[in-house]
Amino acid sequence: xxTVRPFRGLRPPKEFVEQVSSRxxxxxxxxxxxxxxxxxxxxxxxIIRPEINFPVxxxxxxxxxxEMARKQFDLFQEKGWLVQxxxxxxxxxxxxxxxxxxxxxxxxxxxxDYLNGVIxxxxxxxxxxxxxxxxxxxxxxxxxxxxxxxxxxxxxxxxIIDKYKATEPLYDFVVxxxxxxxxxxxxxxxxDIQTVTEAFAxxxxxxxxxxxxxxxxxxxxxxxxxxNNPNHTGKEEYNYFMAVAFPASHLTVIDYNRVIKDxxxxxxxxxxxxxxxxxxxxxxxxxxxxxxxLHNFSLYLGGKWYSLTAKEGRYDDNDPIGVLDVTISSNLIxxxxxxxxxxxxxxxxxxxxxxxxxxxLQKRVDSGEMVAxxxxxxxxxxxxxxxxxxxxxxxxxxxxxxxxxxxGLIVHKLED
Length: 416
What we know:
Layout: E1 4-5, E2 10-11, H1 17-20, H2 30-37, H3 45-48, H4 63-78, E3 83-84, E4 90-97, E5 100-110, H5 111-116, E6 119-120, H6 127-140, E7 142-143, E8 147-151, H7 155-165, E9 171-174, E10 181-187, H8 190-200, E11 206-210, H9 212-228, E12 240-247, E13 253-254, E14 256-260, H10 268-275, E15 279-285, E16 296-301, E17 304-310, H11 325-335, E18 349-353, H12 358-366, E19 372-375, H13 381-389, E20 400-401, E21 412-413
Parallel strand pairs: 6-11, 8-12
Antiparallel strand pairs: 1-5, 2-3, 4-5, 4-10, 5-12, 7-21, 8-11, 9-10, 13-20, 14-18, 14-19, 15-17, 16-17, 16-19
Helix pairs in contact: 4-6, 6-9
């Protein structure tokens, strides 16, 4: 069962929240962070992308860059741009995109739950990215950015959500860049805090939706601190890390698409002929074609869109991994026809989040940068849960969640 607890959030005063908060560190590069933070000394990018405080070209993994993150974090607290709440509480965080709002509970997630598999993952992590985030957590002694969890719908927790979303929020604003809304409430009533804690204690598992590297880094640093503390009791703040947990039904998984640099020596006609061995191929013309169901794909090639529907017998509906469209396309198209074996390392394929739309795929092919694009039907939240429950791991670049959690709304310090 899941163990969670409230915490004393470190957060910006209301008048600073729009200046402080930012996109997550991993959805933009150094140049983009530098541009977004231009003229704004309160931007969280100074902490989560600390290389922007150095001249252009500075290696983001240099030790002094991590040290700069610590200096900036201290400065934000000294200046009153981040202020800690007086008592441990939970928070309610709502995100609104395209008229749809999803509500998540901001919690302290238990490190041991991650290590023991109560917090379940569906993706592999890379050691280099884990270590980068671990260094960041170590030097700050804090979780600056939350992890994105899902949990099975729960009537008790939904009642808490419904109660607090009807009250006055701490923050309520829309980001001009993308038009996404962000609203935060504090759950500070002692009885409600206890209700949240007890309700999670009856939930068998939590599921990482997004932020596998942040989860791993936070949990490993917490375990590291426990090991190095001769007076460790298990009640210390470092035994928990910050997450936002959403009821599974609130979430929508967006497609995660592929663009391809070459056809492995094949002509477009030869490539289409090989596709017909495993797919029903239908030319759709110049208008963008979006996949309409599982096992249906759209291909953009030579200025035209095609519908590809996997033939029966080419996949196993009883295999939670084999039935995924990302597996079908990776095996039958990228591997068997194009010779792309490892999606994590190949330079011949790139990935485009569905939030950018299929027009982005067409643009990258028409520019000559890529030769073809492949759009997939998105996986469902239930598929993600089923895969995690069976201990399986999804292929790379399978899921894309939007909107991303806004960073800097709440920070969790590991020493309270």
